[in-house]
Amino acid sequence: MSAVLALVLAACAPGQAGEETLPKPRVGLFTSLPIYWGEGDFGEILNGEAEQNWVRAELETRFELVPLDTLEPDSLSGLERVILAQPRALAPSENASFDEWVSQGGRAVILADPMLTRHSHYPIGDRRRPQDVVLLSPIFSHWGVALQFDESQPEGEREVTWNGRAFPVNLRGRFTEADTGAGDRSCEVDGDGLVARCARGAGEALLFADAALLDWEDNRPLPQARRDALWDLLAPLAADRQPSAN
Q1: For residue range 83-122, what is the model confidence (pLDDT) as tens digits?
Q2: Which of 78, 242, 96 is nearest to 183 (CA)?
Q3: Is 56 exposed, middle or buried (CB count within 10 Å of its CB: 0-12, 13-18, 19+)?
Q4: What long-range pairs does 146-153 form, CB within 8 A, spacing at least 24?
Q5: Would you call 235 exposed, middle or buried from its count of C-beta atoms within 10 A (0-12, 13-18, 19+)?
Q6: How far apart are alpha carbons 88 and 16 in whole angstroms?
Q7: pLDDT at position 218
Q8: Distance from C-alpha of 132 to C-alpha of 101, rounded to nearest angstrom
Q9: What distances in angstroms separate CA 9 from CA 14, 22, 158, 191, one per listed residue?
Q10: Could you report the per-residue pLDDT of 141-174, keeping only the tens digit for each?
Q11: What is the pLDDT of residues 37-91, one digit of tens each?
């Protein structure tokens, strides 16, 4: 009897063959920032020798990342969660596709920076350079918000508190509710314009008017507060959270 009990306990012990591991939720990543592939030498990237971006490393602790080249229906098919981080300008068909995807139950977090402060090795005009100024006005207008930029604000990273958490920002934007006549006003602005919460049909999107949170390029240890802020921002993509329905 004791031998049988020992076998049962061994099968149920953590880390043993009897343990059932739940799959990580799949999350699409659409970005012009060097989060997934990095910005190093192409040979180093192919050989796996390039230093991994901290954001990718952090995201892969909880998500199975799916890098996206487009937001056309074929790319979004099968995904329930998507992160847009300083994406390139969308084609009209991508705007329509992404809006439809959200309306059908998709959940998205969008970091949209009107004045990107991240350093890049590539010069202005190089297609490999991250998008310096986010160009998402068509879909924002369709959802009833506008992204504004105050040119008089001082440059340099600082912290802004939203939802009980301090978020690093640098030359941040500000969302305002806008009746553009282009679509439904489906967003509520929060945090002095730093955030807009948008409900579209069975889905939702959280808009964040800066991308400095994703920066950290020096040799100092990454602050835990930065990791915590990232996960607070990505809370709408939590596996056990159901999208709101309107």
Answers
A1: 999 999 999 999 999 999 999 999 999 999 999 988 777 7
A2: 96
A3: middle
A4: 146/175, 146/176, 146/178, 146/180, 147/112, 147/114, 147/173, 147/174, 147/175, 147/209, 148/114, 148/173, 148/174, 148/175, 148/176, 148/193, 149/114, 149/115, 149/173, 149/174, 150/174
A5: exposed
A6: 45
A7: 65
A8: 26
A9: 10, 20, 52, 50
A10: 999 999 999 999 999 999 999 999 999 999 999 9
A11: 876 555 554 555 557 899 999 999 999 999 999 999 999 999 999 999 999 999 9
- Do the Cβ atoms of 141 and 183 come closer than 8 Å? yes
Q: Which two tokens stand for residue 132?
A: 């310096």
Residues 29-50 as b or e (16 or more Cβ within 10 Å = b): bbbbbbbbbebeeeeeeeeeeb
Contact present, 112 and 194 (Cβ < 8 Å): no
Tokens of 142: 């369709």
What residues contact 154, with CB distance under 8 A and at least 6 apart?
A: none
Q: What is the pTM of this model?
A: 0.84
